[in-house]
Amino acid sequence: MTLLIPGRFNGPDTSGNGGYVAGLLAATLGPGPVTVSLRRPPPLDTPMDVATADGRSVAQDADGAIAEARIAAAEEELPRVHAVDLSAARAAAERFPGHVSHPFPRCFVCGSARDRGDGLRLFSGPLDDGRSACVWHVEPDVAGQAEFVWAALDCPGAWTAHDKMPMVLGSITGLVSALPEPDEDCVVLGEFLGTERRKVWTATTAYGSDGRELGRAHATWIRI
């Protein structure tokens, strides 16, 4: 099979959003927690060959592996960031650091230069306890698709460590447990877990408007 990332779904201007790419590749391994590692920036509008065998999928081109997915450990090993209500998430979003300075303003997930209906516009701002939160208004064209939950679990993690920007996603372990409805207002939480040299670790959890968990993830970021 092949994998192609349409230009709309960028992170940095010339490569795919890491969470979205991870979600598409994770889908080749079925339900359950999956770890996806990005070896190189995923190209846009360019077919990548995908080979799947023995609980592992690799997206590649003539130069070798671009992204690799493997079945991960059990669900309980993924940290959960506890929920806040919608009003608290809206207030946090008003403090989104990316409104002042953004390394990738055209990012599909968190880009401040994307219009509603074009990007997810997840503007994750700090809570009083050091976590971050934002509201995800789910447009009908992205509802019901697991790769967009993966995308929503991506950037809100990075913004918990915005003082270490710019960063790109190195790897993400994620689990999608439910899908959002069209026009649902969901809440996505992020938590900073630690850093060492160029690496930054974060956790994210997404909740539906009724409090059900949509998914959670643990990510490793690489400072650039």
TrEMBL record:
Gene3D superfamilies: Hotdog Thioesterase (3.10.129.10). It comes from the Bacteria. The lineage of its organism: Bacteria, Bacillati, Actinomycetota, Actinomycetes, Mycobacteriales. This is Uncharacterized protein.
